[in-house]
Write a structure and sequence with these properties.
With about 500 residues, the chain is an alpha/beta fold. It folds into 2 domains: about 230 residues, no CATH class; about 250 residues, Carbon-nitrogen hydrolase (Nitrilase/N-carbamoyl-D-aminoacid amidohydrolase). Helix content is about 45%, strand content about 15%. It contains 15 helices and 14 strands. The strands form 3 sheets. It has a 6-stranded mixed beta sheet, covered by helices on one side. A 6-stranded mixed beta sheet has the order 7-8-9-10-11-12, covered by helices on one side. The mean pLDDT is about 90.
């Protein structure tokens, strides 16, 4: 018995919710094929507006459950009133769900009667294009891109060639094949989707290869995890204890050539602890260690606050500044009158200033460092230029904002994809987890338990060379998807002309 469109909306919501099981910490990547396939089946033959409602329901289920941790970040630690927190969360979820609603509407608006064209050309092309679009439009929210779910699957081999969106495209094509299998009954109609499913995974497995190569000798690294609770970090009476904690942990890291501290590791401005930093660098010289430290910096000449990473190295100290800031966390995209109201309510309102897009490559421990801070590592294409020089990647973050939620695990999954795309080791230092060292195939070499004061030590191999993705970025996937839509439009026009004749 068929269900009405409202029942289909409920089914779409439930299916979208289950899609989160494909991401870390669960990692059930087949769900990332199954869930979109169910959506494609639900909207088959449905009028465009009702298809859009089903897509919206799917998106709300997906993003509401996938980003539930924003409540902790905004309300619990950010101290934003609960009513405003819900408004902000609802706005983000609605905006993200709109992309999936648009996919369903467009597909059924122009290709409802052209089933084969709609399935094999339009749906995978639209899925990857809209996912790419939401990754940068209006500052972008690239979190929960489907491709990340496949970091531990055979399709991961596509990432060094076409990036995470290439993996997304392959997953969408696999979902189309599965949906066609469900909707077709004849034996002849089954060979094509079965062949597509087999080809995707066979090509991915056989096409796996090393795109980068080792340069120089291995170096020893240490990542310090201070495990300072976010609700205690900025209390004035904890300042001295935090400074002592990081000094003490660093003494157990001696012997490493490069020591990495997490984002905003110390609850002070860099200008307030110059003596502390000088003593730290002097101790590092005695033990043959150099540093990459996350700190906030105030520049009095421009009256700007920056979220930065300070490299203390014998080859020269230097700063890297975070380029992709977190909306409502590091800057507030609101009108002036709202900002004034926030100030009167004693809410945080001082904006950080983003770093320049092109910043000099910093060196430490004899390596050229590809640096990112917090969630800006989710913007893979923004890191491509530095890969022409970098031999080692470093990401520092403070996932304490998200508490004991799925967000730190999702973020680690993103970092693993960046290492795989680049073909380089990545050292990741997080305040309370998940601190890890990631290999050039996206594998976790070593990691620390969350919420524990500890130091992670490992040996990493500097790498050089460029993967195909590092050379050309997202252009092949985006252009390929646009060409598929062009072909779909052309084929439909030919069919209509023949029908009129």
């Amino acid at each position: 018995m068929s269900i009405d469109w409202r029942g289909r909306c409920v089914a779409a919501f439930v299916t979208g919710s289950t899609l989160n099981l494909s991401f870390a910490p669960f990692g059930w990547w087949p769900v990332a094929v199954f869930a979109p396939a169910v959506l494609f089946v639900l909207i088959r033959g449905v009028p465009r507006r009702r298809a859009a409602w089903m897509g919206a329901a799917f998106g709300v289920g997906f993003f509401a459950f996938g980003t539930y941790w924003l409540y902790t970040c905004i309300h619990i630690f950010g101290l934003v009133p609960i009513w405003l927190t819900f408004i902000l969360q609802a706005g983000l979820v609605s905006l993200m769900a709109f992309y999936i609603a648009a996919l369903c509407y467009i597909a059924n608006r122009f290709w409802l009667e052209s089933a084969a064209i709609r399935d094999w050309l339009v749906l995978p092309a639209l899925w990857v294009l809209l996912e790419w679009l939401r990754g940068w439009l209006l500052s972008g929210f690239p979190w929960l891109s489907i491709g990340y779910a496949f970091i531990d699957s055979p399709l991961a081999a596509i990432a060094p060639v076409f990036g995470v969106y290439g993996v997304t495209f392959a997953a969408a094509l696999a979902a189309v094949a599965l949906s066609v299998l469900w909707s077709r009954t004849g034996t002849r109609q089954r060979w094509l989707p079965l062949g597509v499913l087999a080809a995707l995974f066979v090509v991915a497995i056989l096409g796996a290869r090393e795109w980068t190569h080792a340069v120089g000798h291995k170096i020893s690294v240490a990542a310090v995890q201070g495990a300072v609770s976010q609700d205690e970090k900025w209390q004035e009476n904890n300042r001295e204890a935090t400074l002592i904690r990081y000094s003490h942990l660093t003494t157990s890291a001696w012997g490493a050539q490069l020591i990495v501290w997490p984002e905003a590791a110390l609850p002070v401005l860099a200008s307030d602890i110059q003596d502390y930093l000088q003593a730290l660098q002097a101790a590092g010289r005695r033990h043959g260690a150099e540093f990459a430290i996350g700190l906030l910096r105030y520049q009095p000449d421009t009256e700007e606050y920056r979220n930065g990473l300070l490299v203390l190295s014998d080859s020269g100290n230097g700063w890297y500044y975070k380029r992709r800031l977190v909306p409502f966390g590091e800057f507030f995209p609101v009108p002036p009158f709202v900002r004034t109201w926030m100030r009167l309510r004693n809410l945080p309102y001082s904006d950080m200033t983003p770093g320049e897009e092109n910043q000099p490559v910093l060196r430490a421990a004899g390596q050229k460092l590809g640096l990112t801070i917090c969630y800006e590592d989710a913007y893979g294409a923004a890191q491509l230029k530095v890969l022409r020089e970098a031999t080692l990647l470093i990401n520092i973050t403070n996932n304490a904002w998200y508490g004991d939620s799925t967000a730190p695990h999702q973020h680690l999954q993103i970092a693993r994809m960046r290492a795989l795309e680049a073909g380089r080791y990545l050292v990741r230092a997080a305040n309370d987890g998940i601190t890890a060292v990631i290999g050039p195939r996206g594998e976790i070499v070593a990691r620390l338990p969350q919420f524990q004061q500890a130091v992670l030590r490992a040996d990493v191999q500097p790498m050089t060379g460029l993967t195909p993705y590092a050379r050309v970025g997202n252009y092949p996937v985006v252009i390929g998807a646009l060409l598929m839509l062009f072909v779909a439009v052309w084929k439909c026009s030919v069919v209509r002309r023949r029908a009129r004749a």
